[in-house]
Design goal:
Radius of gyration: 46 Å
Largest sheet: 7 strands, mixed
Structural class: mainly beta
Shape: elongated
Strand content: 35-45%
Number of strands: 45
Length: 651
Amino acid sequence: MHSFGGATGAFTLTLTCTCPTLSVNPVANQTVCNNGATTAVTFTGLEPATVYTWTNDNASIGIPVSGTGNIASFTATNTGSVPVTATITVTPTYTGCPNGPTTSFTITVNPSGQVDVIPNQVLCVGQPTAAVNFTTTVPGTTFSWTNNTTGTGLAASGTGNIASFVTTNATAAPLVSTVTVTPNYGGAGSSPVTFSNTANIDLPAGQPATTSGPAGPYPSPIVVSGLPTTGVAVQSVVLTNITHSWSADIDVLLVSPTGQQFMPMSRVGSSTGFDAAATVTLKDGSPAMPTTSTAIPTGTYAPTAGTPATTTMPAGAPVGPYNLAAPAGTSTFANVFNSTTNYNGTWNLYIADHSAGDYGVMTGGWDITFLVPSASTCAGTPRTFTITVNPTPNVTATPSSQTACSGAAITPIALTSTTAGTTYAWTRDNAAAVTGIPGNGTGNISGTLTNITLAPVTVTFTITPSANGCPGAPITATVTVNPTPQVDQPANQTVCNGTMTAPVNFTSTVPGTTFAWTNNTPSIGLAASGTGNIAAFTATNATTLPVTATVTVTPQYGTPGPVVLTGSLTAPDPTLASRINRNAIASSCAVPKTWPGNFGAGPYFYDMHSLTNNTGASQCVTVSYVSSTVNQVHVSAYNGSLTLLTRQLII
């Protein structure tokens, strides 16, 4: 009951409600990569109490076909080879009121880049590689790659296909480049981002009174921020407006926030300097800086560290040894600064002047540039393949030349190489004149050569090394084979006591033959031995019966010489803990004819010795070594050359 001016009565109050104006503000379209996170979508409109419902025409991207309220960030999916687009239609609603006008936006999910399997390659030094043409099942994929070993001739990094190049390998072992290829959909893969510190740097600090030592400031810092925490690589460092008259004094050390360190410039230009206000860009894959006395102009150069390389920097810098660029080392920006590392933080550049007498300045400071993955790029799973460059094997023949008697064993020719696994194939010449060792073979060379001519013949062995399928340069080893000496049969003589014999002049069909003789009965007036012809002499016989002297003539070829022993007879040498058994050697020589034998348990010392008989006749030589500890070695030598394993008993 209400009273109006004293009047009372009943009345009806009618309330009329109107619906609010419903709307949904436009929503930005999104493009994300497969497995990438979308941006959360928050719907807004004129009426704060609006409830938003939405539908999605493509649930394959990772959200349902419908829902209510905002759309939280989610991991988008696209397992195909082309972009997938979902259209989301949003409707504003209010209880008891008609729906408001809808709005739509799209979420496009790009596929991940993909690269097909790349075959490995194995080559020899100097061979051209097969061009590497990357293929993919995802159209629009581009390719970036890194190489961990530039010694094969391939750059440290690049984009796109890899053209054929001529391989290199300066080592004695196989060199392997592991190439990692990253497929990228929708972009070139990365873009450069540069950070700078433009403050001047004095080279060194305290100049002109001080002309050597650390730069000022030391270090020069650059704070890096905003980079992705993975996938970033260092592209280059720029040293701006350097003036210094002796560039070989200057050493530059770059240190990352995580402590990785690299010396991209050291000992360059020798006694000359940088051109006035030279700006030097240090970047992998560029031409090396000069390390001789050459002025260095503005330009882009590969990191370069001449020799002798710097191994210490003034206090305040990290302690060496440092990662050095070529030619002193093999480091590059690519293989020092790992692209999986978070590079946000302070980078420090330490510069030092190591020799007194001059100074300079960098009036523009320095820059560092990073390669950052492009936002529009969808990287796929990287693949790796290898390019193996096998070295060119070498070969050494020991001995490389020798002289042997016909029918005697040559000194074995040992073949060695600095390349592991090297095998050797050889051929020889003069097979018609010298028989014995075959015309070709493999491995070390040994055997007996027989000269069937009347003059010396040189046999040349041509040896070709091979390792891992790669041939090396052939070398030669020679054996000069002397002919078999011969003596014509002299006539026997019968003379009376007191009369002169006829002179004996030895002859031979082999030019150059000399003669040694022995006489078993010196009492007839002839010496027991001699060389050359036998002059006439007065024969004597003091007995009552005929006396016969038998003269044995040995023909020999070449100039007689001594029996030569090579090798040491002294200890210590590697021990052999086993018994030495008796090993008889057939011989017409006087004792000893056998190795020392049955000494009981070791240890024993042993050496390799060579005895070469240069006398031209059979010899029996005993070499004995006796020390204060009663150590003994016995060796027997025979006609020709004989290599013996001698043993020394330690008592």
